[in-house]
Amino acid sequence: MKKSNGSQTDTLYKLFIYIALITLAISIIVPVAWVFFASIKQNAEFYGNPWSIPLGFHVENFIEAFQEANMGNYLFNSAVVTVLALAILLIVALPAAYVLSRFSFRGSKMINSFVKVGLFINISYIAVPIFLMLLDWDTVIRTILGEELLLNNRFMLALIYASTALPFTIYLLSSYFQTLPSDFEEAASIDGAGYFKTMFSVMLPMAGPSIIIVILFNFLLFWNEYILALTLMPGENQTLPVGLLNLMAAERAAANYGPMYAGMVIVMLPTLILYIILQKRLTQGMTVGGLKG
Description:
By secondary structure, the protein is mainly α. Helix content is 78%, strand content 0%.
C-alpha cells in the first residue's frame, strides 16, 4: 500500500510538472506565433477575427518597415552597438573574473565586494546622471573641437552597456572559474606557461560553456535595452527598440498595423535565431557547474 501511494504521488507530481511546462510553453509560443502571423497580414484582415490565419504572405509590411520607417538603419545601429559592447565586455570581464577568482592579493576582497554591490544598481537610476555627465563633457569638447563626440555615439553607448554589465558578468564568470580544479594550472606552470598563457590556453577554453551563457544573456540585454539608447542617442544613430516604438506610434496613429508587427518580428528574429543556435551549449553551461562540484 505504501509503495502504491508513493508511485501515485510521483505520477501526480510528474503530471503537474508536465501540465505546468506545457502551459508555460503555450503562453510563450502563442503570442510569438500570433505576432509572426500578424506581420504578414493585410491591413483589412485586422478588422475581422484576430485569430484568423493570414490569407497570404504580405511581404510589403516588411518592405514598408525597412524603407519608410527606417528599420534597416535601426537594425544596423543595434548590431554595431551590441557587437562592440560584447567585445568590450569580454575583453575586460574575462581577465578580471579569472584574476579575482584564482588569485588572492591585497585589495581583492574589496574589489569583489564592489563587484557584488554593482549587481544591485539599476540602470534606470543612473541613465540621467550619465546623460548629464556626457553632456557636460561634450560642452567642453565642443569649445575645443567645434563638435560633439560623446552623445549620439555608437561606441560610447556600447562602452556604457559593457560597463553596466560588468558586475553581473564578472560575478558569473568568477563563480564558474572557482569550480575549475587547479591541477590544470599546476600542469601548465610545470610546462613553463606564464599566467597569461595559462589563462588564454587552458582556463578560458574550459570556461567555454559559461562564456556562452554570458554572451547570450548580455546579447539579449544590449539588444533590447531602451532607456539608455533613448537618452544617449537623440540623433540618427538610434537603436532598434527606440525605432520600434517610433514605428508603433506612427503606424498605430495611421491605423496601419501590418508594418508595426513586422517591426516587432525584426526585433525578435535575431534573438530567436541566436537562442536556437546556442540552445544546446546554453543547457550544457547551466548544468556543468553543478556537475563539477
